[in-house]
TrEMBL record:
Family of the protein in this entry: Belongs to the DNA glycosylase MPG family.
Keywords noted in UniProt: DNA damage, DNA repair, Hydrolase
Superkingdom of origin organism: Bacteria
PANTHER family (UniProt xref): DNA-3-METHYLADENINE GLYCOSYLASE (PTHR10429:SF0)
Keyword hit for Nucleotidyltransferase: no
Class of the enzyme per the UniProt entry, highest EC level: hydrolase
DNA repair keyword on record: yes
InterPro entries reported for this sequence: Formyl_transferase-like_C_sf, MPG, MPG_sf
Organism in which the protein naturally occurs: Chryseosolibacter indicus
Database matches in Pfam families: Pur_DNA_glyco
EC number(s) given by UniProt: 3.2.2.-
HAMAP family: 3MGH
Protein name: Putative 3-methyladenine DNA glycosylase
Amino acid sequence: MKLPLDFYIKNNVVKIAKDLLGKVLYTNLDGVITGGLIVETEAYSWKEKGCHAYNNRKTNRNAIMFERGGYSYVYLCYGMHYLFNVVTNVEGVADAVLVRALEPLSGEQEMLLRRGKISNKLHLTSGPGKLSKALGIDRTLNGKSLLDNEIWIEDIGRKIAPKNVVIGPRIGIDYAGEDALLPWRFSIRGNPWVSK
DNA sequence: GCAATGATTTACT
DNA sequence: GTAAATCATTGCC
């Protein structure tokens, strides 16, 4: 039930971001499998200032975004947090979806171990930096294919009704000016794991 | 070569 | 509510 390449190479990154809600992100590191339901995403495109590849600016860091869809883009933010993105669209077009929050499904014990002692279980994966740590995602996973067996996304047949999808502006990109207001953030209504 | 800074989290006041 | 932690990447010198 792994998502096929077709899913990633579509040219509508906003639609893909919405479709990723209810899918499941897995990692398999050193034989340990952890995974969680995607409950919050954001779309990024080279056409707007919030994106690292704005105006087709290609650097060593974001080069993977210019590849065909279906790759992971992992990078370090604020010196201490890894953020996980899904590269979409065809080669040469830099679009990506940031996964902002998960609901833990499998390997919960391992996630707790990686995150250390935390006050509230709800803080386990309710944010982009947190979910990366819980799943063991770091820069060594940058550029991995999501069709491979280290990190991938599955469709477990869960459908999210349109009325249960919350749409709003993206978070933490005030510097992007008017583009920060684009309604490109999607989350599952009422899910306690969605970041605040 | 070097200084500025961010798609965040956490712990304080 | 505000601020500190912390470093790879970036863009300019």
